[in-house]
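Standup notes
- DV: blocked on the single-chain target, sequence here:
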Amino acid sequence: MEVHQEQAQDFPLVIATMPATDRQRAIAVGVVIVLIVAASVMAPFASIQVGRIDAFIPVLQTVVSVVDLITATLLFAQFSIQPQRAILALASGYIFSGSFAFLQTLSFPGAYGPAGLIGDTLNTPAWMYVLWHTTFPAAILVYAFSKDTTGAAIPQGRPAMTAIIITVACVLALIAGLAWIVTTKTEYLPSFYTTDVRLQTQFGNQTNFALWLWASTALAVLFARRRTILDLWLMVTLLAYMPSFLVAIIGSSVRFTVGWYAARCFILVASCMVLSVLLVETTLLYSRLASAIILHRRERTNRLLSVDAATAAIAHEINQPLGAMSLNCDAALECLKATPLDLAELRSCLTDVKNENSRASEIVAGVRALFKTTARQRTIIDVNRLAREVLRMVENDLQVHGVSVSTEFQDDVPQLRADPIQLQQVILNLVKNAIDAIAIGPTAIKAIRLITTYDGKSVVSLYVQDSGSGITTENETKIFDPFFSTKISGMGLGLSISRGIIEDHGGDLRLTETSSKGCIFEITLPV
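- DV (later): unblocked, structure below
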């Protein structure tokens, strides 16, 4: 038996909770390989002194600052949709990163002024750099430890906006306090430079090693708890930061060398990682959401048209026999008032009422047959192929609701003679019911499983299993009744019509198992 595992895109409301796909992992690995190759090519030339370019730092780090603050804004937007404290912590990390990157630019000699605009020229820029690369990994650590914590969510709406405002205010206050210390109190802090800004002290090398170790710790924790797209690209971001530390530790601790310039370029690349992913995935999310809305509106319109047509047809056709029965009942009542009692006339009226009742029943059956999928020419079909086609049809619904799909199709299932359109509609109805059951239920696992089996003799079975909340005991015997539905907006005809179609093919459709962990529906068809 061949087992196929098909994982659909986890598509909750925000990118921060989307699981990483194999394609995204492959892209991330490719980016990491490019970074490693670039660092390896640069390493032999890291200590070569080149000309001092004063415009390099203000241009590059202003871009880094803007990119980080835009990333923080997008993460706050994600938080407003899916209020989780982990996202709030990560957004705070990007505010720290963008703010300290810009403050270091203001203090860097030769950037916006010969001696910088703030600080003591020698050590303030270095301390800004330390604060920059200390607070950002710290925020990632908080994110990593809190992202899967139960009860880490905050109510949506006004409380979420209040949380954002309080967080931004606290972060800015902390940035201001730390910046004041390293700007005005550097004489109380260890020195990174003594007289020459081009050469660090031994303390500077040790600090770079500590920063590398700190970032590596955040990377290791995030790797151990990785799950989402955001986790994946945050790991790539931390890896992209590593050359800036390693250049100072191993290759060169001197400013304005090849390694020094290259390390800043790696920082720019790292800064753009998460922003790029957020923009790309947000665009894809918008596209899928727009498609889902269009399909939903189309389905709603078709459903309303079908209901309107069915009710209009029933009302039009059944009015005549109902009117005739009313007249005959009135005539029978008049007969009862007559003296002597005319039994023959009374019998005739009651007989007409009975006949009109039969006629009304036939009309209802005729209208039901009109809107039921009519019998078509039956052909030889492959059940496995038909099930795969159905999964492709609902791929968008699966992505929108974040439902994963696994299939276990037996390879030696014989072909059947059946109406492919009718059978496809039955499977589609069961799968869509499963998606709806998962979407409305508070289920932690969102999964659907399709299985086909052959008993080796005369029966092919197809199972549709979901991880919804199940069907209550009192409803188990009613779910195949016409006009009975467990969904608020359901018409209550899908399972009834589906069972009729399967029975017309000589098979059976039944609910084989239901519990709080989900349901299993079984279709059996004769070979």
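- Follow-up: Residues 258-337 form the longest helix (80 residues).
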